[in-house]
Design brief:
It is a single chain. Helix content is 16%, strand content 47%. The protein is an alpha+beta fold. It has one domain (2-151): Nucleoside Triphosphate Pyrophosphohydrolase (Alpha-Beta Complex). The strands form 2 sheets. It has a 4-stranded mixed β-sheet. The chain starts with a strand and ends in a 16-residue tail after the last helix.
């Protein structure tokens, strides 16, 4: 089995009881809302990654103000020629404050739309699990920055 590790940084941006989300487009065309952010470039600091990715995906510039936590996810999926991949995603989640820019959609990236959503409407969105994880980290602020597996959200 081929092992894959992806380290990424994401932002929870909340203002006026709304959260900033980006709509991710999967390889099969499925679209689901996610936290703005993405993969680190080699040698890049996660702080710089989240600033760069939020701007790319939403048009907003941000200042990370707090490290909320680190989430780890592991999945297996098929690869070419019948092989399987053992994927491990390490997701660094920050709280970030909007400092400028104008909301816009990403062009030519992994997301196709950016929007502010009322916090009380998030549960009705088609979303990835990371949205629930990030909002839970933001609300609860666990001392360790970690949500234990039994306590992790299961929706989305």
């Amino acid at each position: 089995m081929h092992e894959e590790l992806r380290v990424a940084a994401y932002a929870v941006c909340v203002r006026d009881d709304q959260v900033l989300l980006a709509r991710w487009v999967a390889g099969d065309g499925t679209k689901r809302w996610t936290l703005p952010g993405g993969g680190m470039d080699h040698g890049e600091d996660p702080y710089d990654t989240v600033v760069r990715e939020v701007e790319e995906e939403t048009g907003h510039t941000v200042e990370p103000v707090s490290l909320l936590g680190v989430d780890s996810v592991r999945r297996s999926y098929p690869r070419r020629l019948g092989a399987r991949a053992d994927f491990h995603g390490l997701r660094v989640v920050y709280e970030a404050r909007i400092t400028g820019g104008t909301l816009r959609n990403e062009v030519g990236g992994s997301t196709d739309m950016a929007a502010w959503h009322p916090l009380d409407a998030v549960e009705d969105l088609e979303r990835v699990e990371l949205v629930d994880v990030g909002l839970r980290l933001w609300r609860e602020r666990p001392r360790t920055g970690h949500l234990f597996r039994a306590e992790r959200p299961t929706s989305g």
